Amino acid sequence: MGSRILVVDDEASMRRMLELLLSQEGYQPKVAQNAEEALAAMAQEAFDLVISDIRMPGLSGLDLLRRLREEGSATEVILITAYASAESAIEALKLGAFDYVTKPFQVDELLHVVKNALERGSLREENVLLKAELSDKDRFGEIIGTSPQMRQIYSLIERIAPTTSTVLIQGESGTGKELVARSIHQRSQRATKPFVSVNCGGIPETLLESELFGHVKGSFTGAYTSKKGLFDVAQGGTLFLDEIGEMSPLMQVKLLRALQEKRVRAVGATEDHAIDARVLAATNQDLAVMVREKRFREDLFYRINVITLQIPPLRKRREDIPILARHFVQKISAASGRSAPSLTSGAMAVLEAYAWPGNIRELENVIERALALTPNDRIETAHLPESLLGYKLPLGTQEIEVPKEGFSLSEAVEGIRAAYIRRALELEDGVMVRAAKRLGMTFRSIRYFVKKYHLNAREDAAEIEQKV
After folding, report:
1. Dihedral angle of Cα 84, 22, 449, 457, to the nearest 10 degrees
2. Which residue, of 80, 193, 348, 393, has the fewest CB within 10 Å?
3. What is the CATH number assigned to the segment(s) 319-387?
4. Four-way CATH pick for 4-135: 3.30.70.2580, 3.30.310.50, 3.30.420.150, 3.40.50.2300
5. How far apart are CA 357 and CA 218, in angstroms?
6. Is this structure's pTM higher than 0.85?
7. 3-state SS class at 172
8. Which residues of 152-184 are buried (b: 16+ CB within 10 A; e: fewer)?
9. What is the pLDDT of residues 404-448, one digit of tens each?
10. Calpha distance 30→6 (Å, rounded)
C-alpha cells in the first residue's frame, strides 16, 4: 500500500497535476484547496507527507506548518511556492519543513524530494518503535512503566518482597494491584510455592468462609465432599485478598483470628489446623476512613496495614501511557494473529490527554476496541471512542488554578474552545452558520472544529449564502 500524501493548493490545476503525478508513482494522494480543509482532513486520518503551497487565501502554507507543529504532528511537510525568498525559505526550515521547492519545478526533482521525505518519516517511526522496544527492558516483571512514581514502587517491592510482613496495596480500580502482588510473591522466598488470588467482594459471605478456610463433607447443603480452603491451597506461598474492603464484619473477625493465630477452622470442623501463607491485601477504598466510620475493624486494619503500597492512577503518570498503549497493541495483535498497527500521533495525543477513570484496564479495553475497528496498519483518532474525543472543561467565574503536578495548557484551551462552540450550537439549534456568527468565526473554521470535536451540527440550506 502506497504512502498517503496530502496535497494542499488553492489552484485546481496544480492540485490535479500533483494528484495524477503521485498516483502514477504508486502513492495515495488526497487534495485540499486550503489550509483549513487540510487541517480538517488530518483530524480524520493520518498522512505520511503533506505537500503545500505557501501562498493561499486564509492560512498560508507556513501557517499550516506552524499549526501542525504546535499540535505535535511530526508529519513531514514539503512547501511549494512561485514567490521564492531567502526569508521564507529560512522560516520554513526553522518551522520544521522537510524541504522548499520553487515553481516551476522539474517533476523528477519533486519526486526525489518526496521520496527522501517519506524515507525520513519512515526512519523516524522505526526509531520510535525501537525506543518502545528498548523501554520494555525497563519493565518490572509483568508491570509496565518507567515513570518516577512506578520506579519508586519497584524499589519498595524489592525491599519488602524478602520479608514475611503483610502488605496492603491501595489504588483505584484498574491500576494493577494484583500485578504488584504477584511481583512481590515472585521476588520472595515463597516464589516456588503457589500464588492464590481471591476477590472478597465477588463472593457471598456464606461462601467466602468456605473458600478461605475450607469445609468438611456434609457441613452444609451441597457439601458432598470435603474441600480445602485457599489458605491451605496457598500453603508455603502467598494468598492475595483483593477488595478486602468489601468483606463483611463477621468475616473480618474470622480473618483477624486467622492472621493472629496462624490457624483456621474449616466450616463444619471441630478442630483448628495450622496455616503458612503470606497475606497480601488490596483495596480501592480508603480503609482509614472506613475505620472511622465503623465499617471496617480497626484491629484488622492495623494487622494488614503493616506495609502499605499506594499505586498511582494512570492520570498521575501520563508518561507511561504511550508505553502501555504500544504494549497492548502488540499483545492483543499477537493474540489475534495479526501484525501490530502503529498509533498515529493524533491518536496518541488523545490517549495521553484523557483522564482514564478506569486506569490501565480501561486503556487496554480502548486499544482492543480500536484494533477491532481499524482496517489498516494504523490506529487513528477516528478509531477511538467518542468519550475520549470530547473535550470537557467546566466554564465559570472560578479563580484559575494551575495544579502543582502540572497540566496540559493546550488541552485546557481546546476544552474551552470546544465548550463554547458546543454551547453556541445549542443556542442556534445546531446550525453552524449562525453559531459561527455568534462566536465571530468563519464558517470554514467552525466546520473544522465541529469535525475535530465530534459535535452535533448541521448546515441550514436557507443560510448557506451567509457563510462567513
Report:
1. 140
2. 393
3. 1.10.8.60
4. 3.40.50.2300
5. 46
6. no
7. coil
8. ebbebbeebbeeeebbbbbbbebbbbbbbbbbb
9. 556 667 766 777 788 788 888 878 888 888 888 888 888 888 888
10. 5
